[in-house]
Amino acid sequence: MSQSLTDWLQQSRLMVVSFDKDRRLLRVKSSTEACTNLSCDEKTVVVTDEGASGDLATLNPGDIVKVDSATGTIIVVRRVWEELASPEL
């Protein structure tokens, strides 16, 4: 069975649950509610509307992200405060 583009986009997105600064572990939750710990190194880049940064502290619990493991990039798709203000809720 083929997957629609909308389904693929929703399944490729992750929600930030927490970040352990000392261990540089990012905990994310998938659309299936499964949590995963991602190990981030100093080369990890976070891309937001404000720009790109190596500071993982720019992520907030509830942010929706995509992860490009090939480049070590975390792309913020939607901020938590945008999610909470969405008329879809």
Description:
- The protein has one domain (about 5-85): OB fold (Dihydrolipoamide Acetyltransferase, E2P), CATH 2.40.50.
- Helices cover about 15% and strands about 40% of the residues.
- It contains 2 helices and 7 strands.
- Strands 3-2-1-6-7-4-5 form a 7-stranded mixed β-sheet.
- The chain is globular and about 30 Å long.
- The model has no long low-confidence stretch (mean pLDDT about 80).
In short:
With 89 residues, this protein is mainly beta. It has helices at residues 5-12, 80-84, and strands at residues 14-20, 25-29, 35-39, 45-48, 51-53, 64-68, 73-78. The protein is built from two helices and seven strands; from the N terminus they run αβββββββα.
Descriptors:
OB fold (Dihydrolipoamide Acetyltransferase, E2P); single chain; 7-stranded mixed β-sheet; mainly beta; 89 residues
CATH architecture: Beta Barrel
Overall 3D geometry? globular
Radius of gyration: 13 Å
The share of residues in extended strands comes to 35-45%
Please give the share of residues in helix: 10-25%
Query: Which CATH class applies here?
Result: Mainly Beta
- Output the structural class: mainly beta
- The low-confidence parts are none
Total strands: the figure is 7
H-E order? HEEEEEEEH
CATH topology: OB fold (Dihydrolipoamide Acetyltransferase, E2P)
* Count of separate DSSP helical elements: 2
Largest sheet: 7 strands, mixed
CA-CA gap between termini: 30 Å
Strand arrangement within the widest β-sheet reads: 3-2-1-6-7-4-5
Total number of distinct structural domains: 1
What value does the average pLDDT take?
82
